[in-house]
Amino acid sequence: MKIGFIVNPIAGMGGRVGLKGTDGVYGEAVNRGAHPVASEKALIAIKTLIEEYPEVVDDITWLSCSGAMGIDILLNAGINEENIQVVYTSESNEMGKTSTKDTVKACAYFIDEKVDLLVFCGGDGTARDIVSKVKKSVPILGIPSGVKMHSGVFAITAHAAGPMIARFVKGELRTGDAEIMDLDETLYRKGTWKVRLYNTARGINEPTYVQVGKASFAQINDDEIKNDITEHIEEELDNHSDTLYLFGSGGTIDYIASKLSIENTILGIDAIYKKKNIGKDVNEKQLLTIMGSYDHIKVILSPIGAQGFIFGRGNLQLSPKIIKKIGIDNIIVVSTPSKLKATPVLRVDTGDEGLDKEFVDYEMILVVIGYRMSRVVHITSV
Q1: Where are the alpha helices (DSSP H) in the chain?
Q2: Is residue 315 helix, strand or coil?
Q3: Which residues have CB under 8 Å from 352's CB, separation 6+?
Q4: Average of pLDDT values for 87-102?
């Protein structure tokens, strides 16, 4: 089987230095002290494939790119050089930096060579570049490394990508349509969250790209995924230290709070500021009083499994008045993919028909399912 393999060496560099991405700001990211992260993620995926599925390794011919765009990672992971063909050499004069042009040109060679699968390491921007060239001619699988990963072509973790490659080679997985989403980084840096559907690709069919993996590979368990979600939330709290956060009820939120050493009420609502609990198990009146002292407020919720409610069940303290004050754009929903598999839609029952309609008009809401990874889920009222 022929697998195209391409790495975006600068993907994800902007995240740690507060740039919300690297598109168009590579120089600034470097000036802020950013370091490449994509090669490490790609290495994890290929090493996992080799270590856990050695029987398929010799069945793969890798078509890749020069240097950090591919061959360096494959060789470092332990792929035999005779199983690798370099089909593209980057035109960039700057070490470790590639461009959209490089990605698109490499994909043209993958198409010409009729690869069976295209594996890439990057984020939504890289996915967009690839699909702009390959369309639906080649199934693609993303190793997550970017700041933004909302598209439906990514493995949940770099570790999970290895088994998915192996099972595809074995013929155990099929392909199907997957949405390519992207966040407008320029607007995001100005505080506006705008995610668009750009295209549809051929992805690998696994329920939520994790659940089958979770069932088949014991090492990818819910706690590991919750740890990734916790890392995402910790970064959110650190990046918005002037924001008051309301922690919702339920086991997932309690797990996150526990990992961050934050006092939490598992069946109540807590007010958190600078990672400290300043209002434990508060009611509506207490919440309104606390909220009056803050200009920026967000709420972190997790849906009730199977039912899908994020408001109106078990958190009536979050009244319509409070939800309106917070604003729909400031609601962060988190969930493990296994829970989402049994929860096909999210629901609201706020007690205010007008507010419920506002949620329904959104049609979809982003749910955090890992570190800097989200899925788009439909939302409706009762």
Answers
A1: 13-16, 26-31, 38-52, 54-57, 71-77, 100-112, 124-134, 158-169, 185-189, 211-216, 222-239, 251-259, 284-291, 320-326, 337-341, 353-362
A2: coil
A3: 320
A4: 77
Query: pLDDT tens digits for 52-88?
Result: 999 999 999 999 999 999 999 999 999 999 999 999 9
What's the total number of domains in the chain?
Answer: 2
Last residue of a domain, one of 216, 241, 267: 216
- What pTM was estimated for this model as a whole? 0.61
Contact 244, 271 (CB under 8 A): yes
How far apart CA 136 and CA 305 sit, in angstroms, is 34
Range of the domain at 349: 222-381
Indicate if 211 and 228 belong to the same structural domain. Answer: no
- Examine the domain organization and report whether 149 and 192 are in the same domain: yes
**Dist CA 21 CA 11 (whole Å):** 8
The predicted pLDDT at position 184 comes to: 64
The answer to whether the CB of 226 falls within 8 A of the CB of 260 is: no
Looking at the predicted structure, is the pLDDT value of residue 14 above 70? no
Last residue of a domain, one of 187, 216, 245: 216
Backbone angles phi, psi at 210, to 5 degrees: -140, -40
What CATH number is attached to the domain comprising 83?
3.40.50
Mean pLDDT, the chain, as a whole number?
85
Give the residues across from 160 on adjacent strands.
Answer: none
Alpha carbon dihedral 66, 72, 78, 80, in 10-degree steps, equals 30
Q: Are 263 and 148 contained in the same domain? A: no
Same-domain status, 78 and 176: yes
Considering the domain architecture, whether residues 208 and 272 belong to the same structural domain is answered as no
Helix (H/G/I), strand (E/B), else coil: 297: strand
| pLDDT reading at 20 higher than 70 | no
